[in-house]
Each structure stands twice: as structure tokens, then as C-alpha cells.
Write a structure and sequence with these properties.
CATH architecture of the domain at 65-174: Sandwich
Radius of gyration: 46 Å
Order of helices and strands: HEEEEEEEEEEEEEEEEEEEEHHE
Distance between the termini: 143 Å
Structural class: mainly beta
Helix content: under 10%
Largest sheet: 7 strands, antiparallel
Number of helices: 3
């Protein structure tokens, strides 16, 4: 093949090869969009899952309560109350645990101490534990357990629930029943006849129960003195926490007064007065809590008062300031001694601030 023919064949070959291949589809231009270009929408991400809420802390259990305190003359006790269901309740005698018990599903608990309570005055308190939390009762119980006297009927205990912080009313949980001892017969005193008059005179009526404690005071040396009424011509024996502190004889009008010979340490005591016969038989009895106080030194006259049986802050304020509502003046001046304005003890010594005119 001549060079010229060879060159023509090379030039024709691509055209023949292209003719042998299938034709490409015809591409039409895209019609313009009358609405304009569409905006670019960014991709939307799913929000992250919310964190799990923290585990709820168990609520603090409600404060436990004393509902029942019953003590027999022998010291056997039944103590019951309420607390959060399932909580562990501990009863304390002062700082000593008296016993531990669990509240049932209704929140009720009952404790029977393993040993009888010894005679004397004490304070019962209460705590409850649940889920690691411990809560105290808002009230404590002031309990006086007497010791049976010789040849005398057994005396029941006395229990009073008082607010722990001192604000609010007190509740009596157990109190001695009305006296069941024989009440002596009241007789008229024989006196010398007077011209035109009777040979007898009427005596004042006996106090309820036959014997009473009506006064409590201190002498200049700080010794306590007590007085009251009983059957004229009878004998009265006085006990503090069931320890005999003295005997006194009544005068023709039935009044008696006693100053114990031995010093009495300051503190709260169960005072008992027994009217007895010559053979020692108890004819009448009264018992009440009292407080023997330390007499302040250099206390100006007229600015102090010894609480008497039957006193209340209201009565003291009415007699001192002419207005019972001013009991708060006495309460504020003696807060170190007064836990509960509704519970004051005979024998306490209160300072009496000068009256301030109402604004």
C-alpha cells in the first residue's frame, strides 16, 4: 500500500468506528423554573434523649408520738404510740435506752420494758429511725413512779407529756385516781361555853381527799417549809420521792406546817402527804410534783415569788400586775426554769419584773 493510501485508511478508520457505535440519546436542555431556585433545607437532627431524673430521696419520717404511758404500782410499764410504718422506735429513760420496737404497718407501736421502773421521777424521750433518717418526738414524758409505803395502799404513777421545746400545752397520760382511802369524819371542836352562846364551833370543811398541801416557802437560810390542812388533832407525814422527811401535827383548825430538818437538794420531787392515825394507818393522802429551788442571794424583796400549789402563770400575773395576759412577762423573765407555761411546779422561785405600762 502506498503511503498515500495508508494515510487515507487511517483517516477513514475513526469515522467508520464511530458509525458502528450506537447513537447517544439526545439531551434536551432543562426548562427554566419559574419559581426560582429552591432554598437549601438543612438536615434536621433528632434531639438528644432527656437525662433520667435523679432518684427521689425518701421523705423524712414523721415525728413519733407518745399516746399511752401506764405504770402499775409495782413499776410494770406499758408504753405505746405512733410512728412511721416500719420505723424502729427507741424509748429513752433519761439518756439510757429503755427499749426498742418496730412500728407496724398502721404506724402503731407498743413497748413493754423488760424490767420494772424504779421509784422516782424521770423523763422519757422518743426517737424513730427509717431509711437512715432519725427523728425525735416533739414531746417528752415527765414520769413519777411512787414507792408503796408501809401499811398504805399502793399509789399509782403520774405521767405528763410536755413539749420538748417548752411551747404548747401539756397532756396528762396517767394521773392518780380520786383518793380511795377512808375519809375521816368531821367533828365539831369542843370549846368552853360562852354566855348565851353554843358550846361548839363549826370547823372549816376538810380539803378534798382529807389532806392537802397548800403552801411551800423558804426561810432565810434557804430551807424549805410546807403547810396544808388535814383533820384537826391528827398527824401528817411528808415524803419526797417516798423518803420520809418529817411529821407534823395539825392545830385545832386543821392546819399543819413542816420544815424538814435535813437539807433538801434542789430538784423535782414527788411530794406525798399522808394523814395517819396513832398506829400509823393512812387515813388520807395527797401527792403532787414539787420543785425545791436554790434561793437566789441578794434578791430584792418584792421582786420574787415562790410558786404555790394551785398557782398558774395566769393567776400570778393577774395578782401581780392586775392582768392575766401579762403572764408572758413572768415567762420571759424565767425561761430557764419554765419549759412549758402550762406546767409550773410548787416551790419554784420566779423573779417578778417591774410592771411596764402597755404601749
Amino acid at each position: 500500500m502506498s503511503p498515500t493510501a495508508r494515510d487515507e485508511a487511517v483517516a477513514i478508520a475513526p469515522a467508520a468506528l464511530q458509525a458502528a457505535l450506537p447513537a447517544a440519546p439526545e439531551t434536551k436542555p432543562a426548562a427554566p423554573d419559574s419559581a426560582g431556585p429552591k432554598p437549601v433545607v438543612p438536615a434536621t437532627l433528632a434531639p438528644p434523649p432527656a437525662p433520667a431524673p435523679p432518684a427521689a430521696k425518701p421523705a423524712t419520717p414523721p415525728a413519733p408520738t407518745f399516746d399511752v404511758v401506764r405504770v402499775t404500782p409495782g413499776g410494770e410499764a406499758v408504753i405505746a404510740g405512733r410512728a412511721a410504718p416500719g420505723s424502729v422506735v427507741t424509748v429513752f429513760d433519761g439518756n439510757r435506752p429503755l427499749g426498742e420496737v418496730s412500728a407496724d404497718r398502721r404506724g402503731e407501736w407498743v413497748l413493754l420494758p423488760a424490767s420494772p421502773l424504779s421509784p422516782g421521777s424521770r423523763e422519757l424521750s422518743l426517737t424513730a429511725r427509717l431509711n437512715g433518717d432519725s427523728v425525735q418526738a416533739e414531746r417528752v414524758v415527765v414520769l413519777v413512779v411512787p414507792e408503796p409505803a408501809r401499811d398504805a395502799p399502793p399509789a399509782p404513777a403520774m405521767a405528763v407529756a410536755v413539749p420538748r421545746e417548752g411551747a404548747g400545752a401539756s397532756t396528762v397520760l396517767q394521773a392518780p385516781p380520786p383518793s380511795t382511802v377512808e375519809t375521816p369524819r368531821v367533828e365539831s371542836a369542843k370549846v368552853a361555853p360562852s354566855p348565851g352562846g353554843s358550846s361548839t364551833r363549826a370547823l372549816p370543811p376538810l380539803p378534798p381527799g382529807g389532806v392537802s398541801v397548800e403552801t411551800m416557802d423558804y426561810d432565810s437560810a434557804g430551807r424549805v417549809a410546807m403547810g396544808g390542812r388535814a383533820q384537826p388533832g391528827s398527824s401528817v407525814q411528808l415524803y419526797l420521792d417516798n423518803i420520809l422527811v418529817g411529821r407534823a401535827a395539825t392545830d385545832p383548825d386543821g392546819h399543819w406546817r413542816l420544815s424538814p430538818q435535813r437539807p433538801i437538794d434542789p430538784g423535782i420531787y414527788a411530794l406525798r402527804a399522808d394523814q395517819v392515825t396513832e398506829t400509823g394507818k393512812v387515813m388520807a393522802r395527797v401527792e403532787l410534783p414539787v420543785q425545791v429551788s436554790e434561793v437566789p442571794k441578794n434578791l430584792p424583796d418584792g421582786q420574787s415569788l415562790v410558786v404555790q400549789p394551785g398557782n398558774s402563770l395566769w393567776r400570778i400575773a393577774r395578782r401581780t400586775y392586775g392582768d392575766g395576759l401579762r403572764y408572758t412577762t413572768i415567762y420571759e423573765a424565767n425561761r430557764s426554769q419554765i419549759r412549758d407555761p402550762d406546767l409550773i411546779y410548787p416551790g419554784q422561785i420566779f423573779s417578778l419584773p417591774a410592771a411596764v405600762p402597755k404601749g
